[in-house]
UniProtKB/TrEMBL annotation:
Protein name per the record: FAD-binding oxidoreductase
UniProt cross-references to InterPro entries, sorted A to Z: FAD-dep_OxRdtase, FAD/NAD-bd_sf
Organism: Aquimarina algicola
Keywords from the UniProt entry: Oxidoreductase
Alphabetized GO MF terms: oxidoreductase activity
Biological classification of the source: Bacteria, Pseudomonadati, Bacteroidota, Flavobacteriia, Flavobacteriales
One Gene Ontology cellular component annotation held by this UniProt entry: cytoplasm
Amino acid sequence: MLDYIIVGLGLSGLAFVDKIANENKSYVVFEDFTQKSSRVAGGLCNPLVLKRFTVAWQANEQMKIAVPFYQKIQNKIGKDVVLDLPILRRFNSVEEQNTWFEACDKPILNDFLYPELIRNSNEALDIPFHYGRVKHTRKIDLAILLSSYLEDLDQKGNLIKDSFEHDKLLHHNECVEYKNIKAKHIVFCEGFGVHKNPFFNYLPIYGNKGEYIIIKSERLQLKEILKSSVFIIPVADDLYKVGATYNNKDISDNPTNSAKEELVNKLKKVIKVPFEVVDQVSGIRPAVKDRRPILGTHPSYKNIHILNGMGSRGILAAPVMARALYNHIEKKYQLPVEVSLHRFDKAFELSENK
Ligand SMILES: Cc1cc2nc3c(=O)[nH]c(=O)nc-3n(C[C@H](O)[C@H](O)[C@H](O)COP(=O)(O)OP(=O)(O)OC[C@H]3O[C@@H](n4cnc5c(N)ncnc54)[C@H](O)[C@@H]3O)c2cc1C
């Protein structure tokens, strides 16, 4: 009998699988490539909310675990996927500059915010009110990281490239059974795919679609990440990711013209040189109204667990949440109430009584 079945290898699945692999647990991973959120993400490892110059929920603490986590995986796969890349925040007004300096004085922020205005020297950019600079941020190349990790799992015989069929899962007292596989536990890390999961689709995880355009511009010559009304993220020679959009009405899979138009219009307000849109990508963020992840054990089945609800900050949250879930399952540690799935037990009871 295996220790674990894991369903889904996005950021959540990766963080949990890596934890159990380090603990020498036996496991198999199912992945069907139906959700793309982690593979198309911008890869920003940034603890700040750059609209308001505040720290995202527990992001400072998460950063201390997340950065070494990705660096360790980088060493394991032998590819440079974690890049030190500062973010330049374009100011829109003198008021914003003042808010930046007020933020610089706060102890929780002063390690991240460089307390000086930076003048723009790149003629391709329109930056009348200068920049602020965010330190210690990273860009993670998630597409390469995830595909290399999957390849490694495949070579070790730990990967099944197939859709997990929930109606074929049997739960016994001491284990679960799926087709011919028995395991002590199953952990669902399906992202927005959870809406097809009859064990957990009572949870209020809604889809928030995000899109990026990929542009080519020889004259832009931007080396840092630029944040204006959109992020401009250097990805390769003369290629940049621009985005992302947020849309909780459209949960279709494919990129849209309206998102492209929105992003092109925003970009034109910041860059003054020609560019060409060469590609567009989209994914659905697994978001929760209270903006907290959801993890824990099913209210009725002690061997069935979930790790989900990472919203727009999966890079920072997933490694910490995976560790908390592992300790909950294996060592019976309590989960923090703000991330426990038991905050939705009322919704579970209602779904049972339908
Ligand atoms: C455009 C965009 C930009 C983003 N930028 C950032 C960023 O810069 N920084 C950041 O921290 N976060 C960012 N995010 C958010 C981040 O991507 C999410 O928080 C994260 O991807 C969630 O990871 P997950 O593993 O929980 O879900 P997912 O990435 O959706 O992974 C779930 C996996 O489960 C698989 N799966 C589902 N159902 C089944 C099934 N039945 N059988 C087998 N496999 C199944 C799917 O194929 C998928 O691979 C961005 C998101 C988007 C869309």
